[in-house]
Amino acid sequence: MKTSGEIEAAICLEMSRFMQDCLGRGPKEIHAYLIDGLLLVRLQGVLTTAERHLIKTLRADKGRDLLKQVRIQLMETARPILESMVKQITGIQVLSLHHDISTVTGEEVILFTLAESPILRSAKKR
Fold first, then answer.
1. Long-range contacts for 8-15 (Cβ within 8 Å, ≥24 apart)?
2. Least buried of 16, 46, 63, 80, by fewest C-beta within 10 Å?
């Protein structure tokens, strides 16, 4: 059994590795929040130099839409890997994955719905 903090830290580490492998760079900041049967991952500073350039040079809505389409496709392709990672860390099957990215702030959120809440160990008090 793990504490919620141990699960959140492991998710951050593995998600950062995944982003590094997939996009060639990791996020500037990453936080994971385990809330009952939900796992929310917030990644900040995720846009690559090429993506930022694309957004600036194309019409605002076209650049945004194109970037979102690419990221959606990447997430759908990587979905089995991400779900397996979450299951390995939490011990719980993933039911669904939801994703969005902001082309304005460079923030990305990934929400995993788990089949149930993980059984957690209480954190030791210091």
1. 8/32, 8/33, 8/34, 10/89, 11/39, 11/41, 11/85, 11/86, 11/89, 12/41, 14/85, 14/89, 15/41, 15/43, 15/82, 15/85, 15/110
2. 80
pTM of the model: 0.89
- For residues 111 and 98, is the Cβ–Cβ distance under 8 A? yes
Per-residue burial over 38-52, b if 16 or more Cβ lie within 10 Å, else e, is ebbbbbeebbeeebe
Per-domain residue ranges of the chain: 4-114
- CATH architecture for residues 4-114: 2-Layer Sandwich (3.30)
